[in-house]
Amino acid sequence: MKIAFLGLGRMGRAIAKVLLEAGFELTLWNRSPASLEALVDAGGKLAKSPAEAVKRADVVVSMLADDRALREVMLEGGALEAMRRDAIHVNMATVSVPFAATLAKLHAKLGQGYVAAPVLGRPEVAERGELNLLVAGPPVQVEAVWPLLKAASVRIWPIGDVPEQANVVKIGANFMLGVAIESLAEATSLAEAHGIEAAEFIEVVTQTLFAAPAYQGYGALIKARAFEPAGFSLRLGHKDIGLALSAADQARVPLPLAAAVNARMLDGLANGDGDKDWSSLYEVAARQAHLDRRGS
Amino acid sequence: MKIAFLGLGRMGRAIAKVLLEAGFELTLWNRSPASLEALVDAGGKLAKSPAEAVKRADVVVSMLADDRALREVMLEGGALEAMRRDAIHVNMATVSVPFAATLAKLHAKLGQGYVAAPVLGRPEVAERGELNLLVAGPPVQVEAVWPLLKAASVRIWPIGDVPEQANVVKIGANFMLGVAIESLAEATSLAEAHGIEAAEFIEVVTQTLFAAPAYQGYGALIKARAFEPAGFSLRLGHKDIGLALSAADQARVPLPLAAAVNARMLDGLANGDGDKDWSSLYEVAARQAHLDRRGS
Amino acid sequence: MKIAFLGLGRMGRAIAKVLLEAGFELTLWNRSPASLEALVDAGGKLAKSPAEAVKRADVVVSMLADDRALREVMLEGGALEAMRRDAIHVNMATVSVPFAATLAKLHAKLGQGYVAAPVLGRPEVAERGELNLLVAGPPVQVEAVWPLLKAASVRIWPIGDVPEQANVVKIGANFMLGVAIESLAEATSLAEAHGIEAAEFIEVVTQTLFAAPAYQGYGALIKARAFEPAGFSLRLGHKDIGLALSAADQARVPLPLAAAVNARMLDGLANGDGDKDWSSLYEVAARQAHLDRRGS
Amino acid sequence: MKIAFLGLGRMGRAIAKVLLEAGFELTLWNRSPASLEALVDAGGKLAKSPAEAVKRADVVVSMLADDRALREVMLEGGALEAMRRDAIHVNMATVSVPFAATLAKLHAKLGQGYVAAPVLGRPEVAERGELNLLVAGPPVQVEAVWPLLKAASVRIWPIGDVPEQANVVKIGANFMLGVAIESLAEATSLAEAHGIEAAEFIEVVTQTLFAAPAYQGYGALIKARAFEPAGFSLRLGHKDIGLALSAADQARVPLPLAAAVNARMLDGLANGDGDKDWSSLYEVAARQAHLDRRGS
Q1: Where is the 6-phosphogluconate dehydrogenase NADP-binding domain (chains A, B, C, D) (predicted)?
Q2: Under a CB-based contact definition with an 8 Å cutoff, are residues B103 and B76 in contact?
């Protein structure tokens, strides 16, 4: 199976590495070609443009930042046109629900396939091939790319035949994660305002009711106030809450928690913290409660 | 150690049972004396009034529903006056921050002790003696009641010298739990509005990012729409979110998520669902999204 | 008609003055007796305690700060007990719905009357006898105090027989006012972030869609950033939003806007701005949007 | 001055009528050509396409429903290309901030002008030539179209040189209007839950603190529960709150009230009420408080 891989940021590189190690043949393209040596050493070939990368591929995997980047590469950049008529596009990034639907249609018009396969997990997890994949698309296409999906993941969650539904699940899960962080930030600021140490509060809740990796990981960052470098940036977190709010507007579903988290994120972004980890929502909570004005 | 135990609802009975089995001598009082046979069979003695129950006790344990019930029993009911001057009151219920502070002062005036020991865990957990206890109070008093606390719990979390701080931690933890449920309710309704089965969405998120007992337990209730009988009722959940909002108002801490959850709970309460489990927040989400109007 | 007037802050003094000028006989009591000379010069008599003030009065008018002050004066201070059995208490302050109901019952038990008459209007308006009064209570009692109410107001709005319903209307109106201020604060911060002068935006909206005294008055304060001295303080505004949220919790009515305004007020209070005018909500909006970080 | 007028819904027809009466020469185009007889009788000429309508015009006025309609007509429909190189486009509709900026750039590239002139006022007001216009654009262009703007309005509010800033002001004003309606809906539902008639509450507040046309107009609709036909539909109101939230996201400004109103609107839209007046937010409030379950 010849694979073209478009978009080699930290997550993309991790997955591409795993695929090369599993024996797949990869042609690579990234906007900035820097730091692809390791992949080339592992057998990957570099292409000079998206169109060149995809033209002979059986499967095109994309892991691009957002709707806009994907549009630039696939539509304006010509990759969609350049793909073979029987090739399948596996999109592993989180994109908006309507754009996923649009892409699926454009591919179908050209006789191409489109499978949505957004990932749950961080780059470290991807490097071990232990991502969870949310997969949706026409069964025959999903089956065709199954070996590739299997190689990249610890588990595949089939979501159904309609590609954008995988995006909805991913968007819903990320929304819940943003809310979990914000709830930890709010509760910690409440505890501190009542004279309890942040570290003490976080330890109690993340070892009892919330003894789960997500809470423990973000709790540790808040305890240590270690918001840089970002594991997942506030800017991307805001993008994902925005996708949830858009998907909710489109389907007419009130999401009061998403709206509340979004407003707090804007305080952080306005403060210039877009590149910090999204657990820096704690700093917004501390600032709005003016914890620094309180005696020790 | 002679113990008076006031308040024998489901949680109170579970703890009293464990204490009797551990060899403590218990005098019991409950507003409605029904269903205390098992405890009497296990060696507990019944008292006819709170005052009678406490008068010879070294330690008075209370597990009453809310501030009002506690006020009626301890103040208006005369239990505080009737306690020995060297006795210690261990309050295991979730009460408001100012009322905890008030009680501590009143006991101190009479030379009595006051230790806050709110619990994390459900009645089934209490029956196995596996609660987590959040304990705060003057060290010498905490030490004096330690054997009792130890018998009732799997782990004791010392929070410090100021009793009401244990209540703040408990209130913060419960607020986070309410938010977790609401986020699951919102995300599930979003998924359903996009044509994804509730059960499918819940399975994916509670086996990946949110593989934690709290999410899995409430997720199972939502999947099964099994909101009655309540494990923890919407009415009590609303009381606890109210305690968080009060503690936040008192200490001037904005809690936008708590405010959002509270508004959704009021929809449920207004619909007459106060006795359902608080995971029935899902029903509020489904109603406000009018999921029943959508084609299948 | 002999009147006892309890509570002579700025609003109380304004109303008392108008009543004296209308020929009523007034006995005055205030916690701090300072600055009552003008009223004494106008014919008012000073009493040394609430009980002394009320003992010969046909009507007791109260204008105290909040539930607690009223409780201290009427219940703990003994004024209720000291009132004649056929006297009527006219409460012009904004109190909570349950406390208004409680007071009505206590008075009725002693054969006394209770009429709620909260005011709409600021002290300047009260000085001209031009308040709007929201009046509720048993018709025969309302009729008995009508001349007094008429003297103090430009218009009386009868709300019905149940005293606390007048408080609900007053609380609802003040909630709407808090929301109007917050909406002006948010919209102005949005305009500024897009490079439009605050003064320009405020002028346009308060001379077109919102050409109403409330918007124009608060708009002028925001334009001038003139938040001190307060016409109505953020602390009192927060008390009133709290009364709305309590009334809503009691009656199970979701009020998402009140919850949002409350969270913003807490940011202001935590910043130490309780004594500023409540239009300083603009400062909260500007701070959360970090307008000061933006180039001019 | 030869004018092309694109978009003749109720508001567009009202303005076109006024311009014809003021002696301007108009070429008209509307997607559906129905109900333009009155305008033709008054001297307007019909065009078969946007391109045909604009090709000889000095000024092109557009009053189209939203970004998408404007894009279809101006870009995909070829009107922009067909305009003379020295013509000026006066856009009187409410469009998004980024699209206004994009349009301004596209026109400038072709040597054409672009003036934003969104309106404040309803169709009845427009028919009397009494709109308020918010006008922004390069001074020389604004001056050139001044006679036209003057004929259509009671007052012109110059907002500055940057066209999209006029849209920001309009979006801010409409956001405030949506909040005002929602606050009236919430407060009225609170009053009703406490046993007060909706009509009584609305009368008191709209004749005292909120004696302004906006509150009185929407208050009357709520009192009469007269939500159809819509003066301004919930669907359009939701579009406008969405524009406010987008403008806020873009400029990083938290708008908690807008987020709260948006969530309530989604309940209404999900219930199938998009074509009702946006004061039907009252029905959402009544439904979430389950007022129909309460005794009369």
Answers
A1: 2-156
A2: no
